[in-house]
Amino acid sequence: MSTEAAAEQTATNNEVILPEMYTRIDAIIEKYKDKPGSLIPVLQQAQEVCGYLPHLVQRYIAKGMNMSPSVVFGVATFYSYFTLVPRGKHVIRVCLGTACYVKRSEEIIEKIKAELDLEVGEITRDKKYSLEAVRCLGACGLAPVVVIGQDTYGDVAATKVMDIIKKYD
Ligand code: FES
């Protein structure tokens, strides 16, 4: 599927964008639209406004910046900084890089999925947590590693991970 088709297909999600969000995004577009190479700061600021980059917003930005939606979609999906789905108040990242994987980080993921009733890439119903699987967090000596928000936890056991997560409310 082309990136344009993927963008079109996913734009039908139930995305709710408030009018004031569009007002703020209009101001961002206005500020940058004549500056070459300014798509990334526009997307960064739009993500700050919405909490993520809904497909409808990507298309809105493409129109405002006079760009193809597939270019905007391509940039939004290329950089891991950008997220196309809403994130929870606390983002839980579990490392599945080699060092963590051999120390059974997959069991940590399975435990979190079962306890919080969500899949990787999803957000809990109360919007408190979202779960991401990542490849090497650069702390292999601490494997297996879990990061919650800005906090890094090493040598995490699947049996103990919920005790850590529950500290974040
Ligand atoms: S493999 Fe997990 S931190 Fe490097």
Backbone shape = elongated
* Number of DSSP strand runs: 4
What kind of assembly state do the chains in view correspond to? single chain
Order of helices and strands: HHHHHEHHEEEH
Distance between the termini: 40 Å
Taking pLDDT < 50 over at least 5 consecutive residues as the criterion, the unreliable ranges are 1-12
Using only CA atoms, what is the Rg?
18 Å
β content, as a range? 5-15%
Share of helical residues: 40-55%
List the total number of helices. Answer: 8
The overall number of domains is 2
Bound molecules: FE2/S2 (inorganic) cluster
Structural class: alpha+beta
Biggest sheet architecture: 4 strands, mixed
Mean pLDDT: 90
User: Strand sequence of the main sheet, in spatial order?
Assistant: 2-1-3-4
Task: Summarize the entry for a quick read.
This protein has 169 residues and is an alpha+beta fold. The protein is 45% helix and 11% strand.
Note down, in words, how this protein is organized:
The protein is α+β, with helices and mostly antiparallel strands. It folds into two domains: 3-78; 90-165, Glutaredoxin (3-Layer(aba) Sandwich). Helix content is 45%, strand content 11%. The protein has eight helices and four strands, in the order αααααβααβββα. The chain has helices at residues 3-10, 19-32, 39-50, 55-64, 69-78, 98-102, 105-116, 161-165; strands at residues 90-95, 129-134, 146-148, 151-153. The longest helix is centred in the N-terminal third of the chain and has 14 residues, at 19-32. The N and C termini lie far apart (40 Å). Residues 1-12 have low confidence and may be disordered. The structure holds FE2/S2 (inorganic) cluster.
